[in-house]
Amino acid sequence: MTATHTRPAHTAKQAWATGLTAFAAVMLFLVGLLGIFRGIMAIAEDDVFVTTRNYVFEFDLTGWGWVHLALGVVAVIVSSGLLRTATWARVLGVVVAGFVIIANFLSLPYYPVWSVVLIAISGFVIWALSVVQRGDLFDLSEEGPVSEGRPPDGTSYPRGPV
Predict the structure, then answer these.
(1) What is the dihedral of CA 13, 123, 89, 69, to 10 degrees?
(2) Distance in angstroms (rounded) separating the CA atoms of residues 26 and 63
(3) What mean pLDDT is predicted for residues 90-107?
(4) Quick check: pTM over 0.90?
(5) Contact assessment for residue 147 and residue 159, using Cβ atoms and an 8 Å cutoff
């Protein structure tokens, strides 16, 4: 007799959790991509940004460009891990989004409206990653055929046409 194992049905809570994680992944990807572009703009062309005098956190604009570029690259990498619902990516996603908020707050006088937009988006990313519990997530990569893995009890799935 062959035992067939079926996947448990998705609950509404799991759907929301997966949706919020996907939302956070896409938003973090966009924040990272925009950070990369902002970093390149600051490194290559200093005329794009407003210069302020006597700013407490005054830092060379090229230096801010490298900070935004580095945070953007890390954010893009972490967002790919979020699509796989990896725990390390959720933790790093919150950390990176926090650093993006701090970097945009400190560079607020250079590009004020854009900094506020990225602070708001990063705040939503932190919220989306923090509100979801690990047990509620459904791995997006498990949507493929069931025959690729083994169930927890060690038996094999039946092979054949799906």
Answers:
(1) 150
(2) 27
(3) 91
(4) no
(5) yes
